[in-house]
Request: fold
Amino acid sequence: MYKYRITPYRDKAKGNKETFIFLSVTVEKKRHRVSTGLKIKPADWNTKARRTKDSQINAEITKYTNNIIEYLEDQYLRKTNPAKIDRLRIQEHMKGGKEAAKEDFINMWLKFLEYIKKDCIRLNEATVKGYIRWTKKLIGFEEHTGIRLSFNMSPEILNVDFKNYLVKTYDLNNSTINTFIKHIKVFLKWVETNGYANTRELIGGLKKLKVKEAGENITPLREHEIKVIEELDLSAMPKLDRTRDFFLMQCYSGQRFSDINNLNNASFYKEHIELYSVKTKVKSHIPYFPSFKKILDKYYNKELKQYDFPKLGYETYLNAIRTLAEMAGLNREVKYALFQGTNRIVIKKKLYEAIGTHSGRQTFITLSLGKNIPADVIMKVTGHKTHSSFKIYIDFANDDINRIVSEAWS
Reply:
């Protein structure tokens, strides 16, 4: 029979904050640290007895211990090499064997979604919806391929098998797949931080994974197109009028959607606005100039002596600016490249179909470069941290120069 020892212990804690209970499982002198997912306050833990004051938690610890013993004895009868009994297999069987373990990844994902919907203040509504949309694809992958997702799977299952499934079933491009990889990393870190499972190996493998992208696709407006949007008669459509103001504020300040949506009275100074980016926490310094100031003044309450800006949902805003662009007749053809696997695909769309929540920011940057404003100055306004992230706009501006000259001499 294998020589084994199973010892419950609590994790370190600061003060009397709740901490996780672990099981130290030693098999043939090799120790495995397994999280039970159970939490207690340090004051409720009896170090000598290695039990808590809570009888229900003690019962769970006993159940998990017995499940592990049953697993180890089964492996002994099967004459399994002790070296092949690792922490992940122990963790799988701790809560009831293979059938319970089979649902762990998906169930934990659903638990994570509940957390970000209710308790995570860092994520905006659109980002949360983005996470939720992956649920159907994760479940569908298991059903269609027969491959079980788990915390001890190879990163290649996500990078190869799941990626191929997304391309073939949903016709997704590499940029969208990379977004999923980022979401999965956040999820796995949450699982690890909360002591539900050890995900370090999987996270480590995913750090090396990124499928090829074509780079950011730029869809800025030209100066005369902004003028057309400005001159639209929206007097009978107050909601769309507010959306137009919101979009023009992006075009005149170079800020992200989330930062304009977060604009408040504390941001305003005598000659400029200071914003700290929701995404990067980098400060932007935005000067007033007539076109920008004209829109800001519409939302200034003289009686209260403060600004009162509308708040817009991401999808509502996206649909509304595309409606605006269509009303303005912005139907010139734009092209952008995508990768699906190793295949580079060029997509053609009308501008009003391709315009997005980032287009206002892109418009400010490309027009500013065209007006010979130094890149470093623009970066101070937009809050770009590095020249490498800004370079794509410079490359695009150079392409625009080629177009203007070619059109002028054709």
Summary: The longest strand covers residues 30-40. Confidence is low (pLDDT under 50) at residues 98-103. The chain is about 50% helix and 15% strand.
